[in-house]
């Protein structure tokens, strides 16, 4: 048997294994079923490609995307390794010669879509092959709890079990929470002892969250401008936004190209190549871009809109810095995006359990965008591991001192309490800021003691409620129409046992003082030097400084 180390050098030209690779390969070669969880770019492919060359016979690789297979096969061929791919649409007259070559030992790796493996006649044909290993790439697709569920993945085990040669299984994924790991293991008969999980942390990646900037396009343009000559990807969530943002950036002289699923194949290939070979600096894309792209020097990944879940975010952000050099991942967060995603889940035909999973994933994104603690730590913990604070994400760097917002928090908690868990956060925000919306009268909110008790703009109140939800002072219950409730931590705040501290300052913003354009309040604030300016001739607008919003709550107008 050839030694894995020799194969690594001879075929791939690498001198040493990366973390996790040797352990996975060693377990695979002893015939165990193995689950490998390693971050994007860690080198998972090698974990089955090396055994494929060590073992006699052929290795089957189940992979969800034809484009992914094609890229892998091209690069294997460049290394002098014969490989081929079959999907469910490959005509029978092309299937037979490939199977023959595999039978004769001329093909060592055979890539299949799960749909192909599910075909009866094909399974029958596979029985003529000596299959030594089945690698299941992107194995999270097998789980409903994952972010990319693919029903045909459910039939993989049945397909493998029908093989006469009884191969062992290697499942691989970059993004599996503990629940998903469990699910994969159960479905593919993998024992806990055979989990190889390398650290989820990406030490060269700095994370940053930007909450609803005034002008997202301008923010992105300024960012790119400050990162001259660095390769970057900007993700947004619709084809139209991709095209619009590309046009916007191009007009301002950025070297940029667009990429989405609505473009012709050759056009997409051209964009991909231009990026790969540094002929274009920035790609604006939907999430169709990236799978199978192996560009090592991507220095930044900006999400102009949040993803629907942390898994997808980490996968996409993880395309930065595969070379190990410093790089940055920026998420621009707009709460409205999540409302849209939520609506799509509401409208979908999926069953309730599946919907609940998707709602929970959306919730985790809101938490990520609102957490005060280390962003890298948040993500790593989401995947069930731990890591020290990174010291360089936007939260770690945010050294501004914590603000005591207990007074405001109490107004909100009291409002929620008065509502007795009957309403969602938007109604709470309206009521506590004293909205004149007729819905307030309908539900009797205007009769409640704490109606209008929070002298803050609606937006700031919403942001505060999100913060309190993310940090456990409040909780939501229910999926489709989640209502807000007070938690034990929230009661502690009301009882004065706990303070609510928040980092940073409310945005110095022009704030509609519909809350109290009242002259007495204005003068009181002015006396306390809490107002920076009053917009000329528009008394309904005041510009606050950082203490105003806090102090306003204390002053009874
Ligand atoms: P993953 O599937 O985990 O995202 P890939 O298998 O696509 O990652 O590998 C990412 C890159 O790392 C590829 O360019 C691969 O050639 C390279 N690579 C893998 N293993 C090693 C190694 N031991 N030494 C150096 N480079 C490696
Ligand atoms: Mg991979
Ligand atoms: Zn950090």
From TrEMBL:
EC number of the protein: 5.6.2.4
Chemical reaction(s) catalysed: Couples ATP hydrolysis with the unwinding of duplex DNA by translocating in the 3'-5' direction
KW ATP-binding (keyword) present: yes
GO molecular function: 3'-5' DNA helicase activity; ATP binding; DNA binding; four-way junction helicase activity; hydrolase activity; metal ion binding
Family: Belongs to the helicase family. RecQ subfamily.
Cofactor(s) needed: Zn(2+); Mg(2+)
One Pfam family from the record: RQC
GO cellular component, one term: cytoplasm
SUPFAM superfamilies according to UniProt: HRDC-like (SSF47819), P-loop containing nucleoside triphosphate hydrolases (SSF52540), Winged helix' DNA-binding domain (SSF46785)
Domain Helicase ATP-binding: 25-194
Superkingdom to which the source organism belongs: Bacteria
Swiss-Prot/TrEMBL GO biological process terms: DNA recombination; DNA repair; DNA replication; SOS response
Swiss-Prot/TrEMBL keywords: ATP-binding, DNA damage, DNA recombination, DNA repair, DNA-binding, Helicase, Hydrolase, Isomerase, Metal-binding, Nucleotide-binding, Zinc
Name of the protein in its database record: DNA helicase RecQ
Presence of the UniProt keyword Translocase in the record: no
Lineage, top ranks: Bacteria, Bacillati, Bacillota, Bacilli, Lactobacillales
Gene3D superfamilies from the UniProt entry: HRDC domain, P-loop containing nucleotide triphosphate hydrolases, Winged helix-like DNA-binding domain superfamily/Winged helix DNA-binding domain
